[in-house]
Amino acid sequence: MATGRTHRPATRSRGIPEATVARLPLYLRALTALSERSVPTVSSEELAAAAGVNSAKLRKDFSYLGSYGTRGVGYDVEYLVYQISRELGLTQDWPVVIVGIGNLGAALANYGGFASRGFRVAALIDADPAMAGRPVAGLPVRHTDELESIIRDNGVSIGVIATPAGAAQQVCDRLVAAGVTSILNFAPTVLAVPEGVDVRKVDLSIELQILAFHEQRKAGEETTAPSGAGAAAAAAVAARPAAGGRKGPEGDVPAVMPA
Amino acid sequence: MATGRTHRPATRSRGIPEATVARLPLYLRALTALSERSVPTVSSEELAAAAGVNSAKLRKDFSYLGSYGTRGVGYDVEYLVYQISRELGLTQDWPVVIVGIGNLGAALANYGGFASRGFRVAALIDADPAMAGRPVAGLPVRHTDELESIIRDNGVSIGVIATPAGAAQQVCDRLVAAGVTSILNFAPTVLAVPEGVDVRKVDLSIELQILAFHEQRKAGEETTAPSGAGAAAAAAVAARPAAGGRKGPEGDVPAVMPA
DNA sequence: AACTGTGAAGAACTTCACAGCA
DNA sequence: TGCTGTGAAGTTCTTCACAGTT
Question: Which nucleotides of C are covered by protein (CB under 7 A)?
């Protein structure tokens, strides 16, 4: 998982497990696609395949929402779209601001998946005065000075941070002070927020690192040489701090040091 | 979590739990920051705070890697950086290709977090002939026709898909056929891949939807009106398919239909 | 004295397998 | 007959709490 919640511990919100909540958007996406093809009903098996999960899990997930299926038949697509949307809070309009309009911020501003799900980009905000007024995705970029008034005037409660890491905490503090209570953080930093504020993070490089981990294992298993061009990056490496007799991984290899 | 693995079931790779693997990049980032500030050692408590997890979890995680700490003292920062990097496979060079050079692809190409962790962008690939040759992040964009040769010539095993949803599966198929075995997918689609290929997905709108879910709960709890400008999106909504007597959520409210 | 490493308990999540209903 | 909904079993992850080590 590339992402994780911060604060607000393992309290199931109204009985729906976090893991289930995290999958509802997947189901919704699959259902929306079926809806567009005018498919009237779908079985747990079919929907599960479309969403990339297994059917027992899907049925269990839906059981937390209520009994919305029909035995022997399946689920009514339109009805389920509505129920899940409502459960996720997507039947209301959520104004969001995006702070940090670099490549990523611009990509987010242009991303169609937001608008189609009730998220309305209320404003794009950047600290660079040269950006101010420039249109991105049809909206004029506003300067950071206006952050507080934008939040208040639009009743924004969700903020997206796409600034460099160094600016993220400061932006976060200002968002929170102005009334934002949910933050989606793309900056590679851990944000400190007060109780009651939710943070979710997306770190692009973390995902790649997890892939690399598994990729490395594959290469090892097959005795295929890793496709990389040599064990380069191993250069800037530390020697064991002190003393000896340390147990290596699995106890089989005695912590070998590189060149 | 915004992300999930596909295929390759719950088999712990060499005894390290998935949940632990997913946190190693976080620790690494925190450690790198300490390293840059020339901090020599760190306790589990301090490092956990910097990484945004609790210390028991961190110690447990590290225990899967081996015994790399010193009781009464803590962990040697440089040494731990090396051990985690090695475990993640970051001590080798991973050439990656990015397919789909829109805003998001460009943002990824420019993202510094890749290069600094052993990921080298071997090529940027786009289907639009008008893009071909145009420099993005210092690299000329190459046309999709060259995809297979680029993969083979550079020994690429990790591919990043940042195309529109409609093109993603086709791109994926070509990547896999050419030898890619790990895919990071930004397109909002479920990708089908053969056994042995890892897919991780990042869906920008899924994260927002999860935030909206929790945000909705907060608003409910406090009897504060939701900050959105009216319950707009509730328009295109289905009526209950047929029959009656269905159990609503928690059994307390009888599945109310909107206007 | 301070802090790691880890068995053991507990919580969360997943999967099984089948009763129950249309 | 076919498919949902769900107790129960199984698995993974987290947290506790303390023995062990420097």
Answer: 1-8, 11-17, 20-22
List, run by run, the mean pLDDT of 10-residue segments along chain A (259 residues).
36 75 98 98 98 98 98 98 98 97 95 91 98 97 98 98 97 98 97 97 95 92 44 39 41 29
Which tens digit of pLDDT belongs to each residue from B139-149?
999 999 999 99
- Enter the CATH code of domain B7-88: 1.10.10.10
Question: Which residues of chain A form CATH 1.10.10.10?
Answer: 7-88
Superfamily of domain A94-207: NAD(P)-binding Rossmann-like Domain (3.40.50.720)
Residues of chain B within CATH 3.40.50.720 domain(s) are: 94-207
Enumerate residues 6+ apart whose C-beta is below 8 A from B70: A241, A242, A243, B41, B76
Interface test with B, best of A13, A21, A103 (most B CBs within 10 A): A103
Query: How many Cα atoms within 13 Å fall on the side-chain side of residue A158?
Result: 28
Q: Is the distance between the Cβ of B233 and the closest atom of strand D smaller than 7 Å?
A: no
Handedness of CA A159, A161, A162, A163 (dihedral sign): positive
Binding residues of A for NAD(+): 100-105
